[in-house]
Amino acid sequence: MISEILTFVIFMMIGLEIRNGLSQPKAVILPMLCALSGMVFPALIFNLFGTHSSAWAVAMPTDVALAVGALSLLGKRINPAIRLFLLTLAVADDFFSLVVIGIFFHNHLNLTSSVNTLGAALIGFILPYRKFIIKFLLPAATFVAIPLYVAINLLTHLDFSSAGGRISIALIVARVVGKFFGITAAAWFFTRFTRLKLPKDLSLKEVAGVGLLAGMGLTVSLVLAKITLATTQELGEVRIGLFMAAVISGLLGLLWLNFIA
To answer: Where do the domains of the chain lie, and which CATH numbers do they carry?
Structure first.
């Protein structure tokens, strides 16, 4: 019951953030393209391992709370434009995650999971006074709902003996490598060959750091795992894979951004 309530709060926050992000459509075009590329590449890399598992979708989402929380560890030395780009990319990532759920896994959704995911996001999307609600709901979601959800659905179920499984390894490589390459390559390609530009105070090296931090994905990935995976063995491998990918991505991202700061 607690897990379902937390899921509802998290996805309502996603809906709020998506609608709020649409208020500046021109500013989100490049981060949206980077987010899409940063979802496609992990899915492709995961499937190259031949796992024949629906966990390819689990490799795609970014966890904005974890990534921004990790970024805050570097303090004021970090360019504020990095945080803004990461937030915008994560909002677009959340939107595409909802699209993936709706298109590929609608048959897996029962009434409860539909209300807690797509329904909650829709409620957040249509709510009035979005900025006021976000001001108070965002800290609650970031510091209470998301940590509780991760603790209930991940940390209490970690089985390190599953770390060597094909799904775990595929998920780690897909998230760490795929997120970094997908986001960085998209930023380079679209700024080089189209009229899209990075913000003047943001460099491609800093976008690469965002790509590394984006490999930290737990919350939405865990929801997708619970919806789509059929066996406890798969779920166990996914949990440890997500955990290890988040740790590796966070450390690499912080080391890189600290190096170039």
So the answer is: 2-260 (1.20.1530.10)
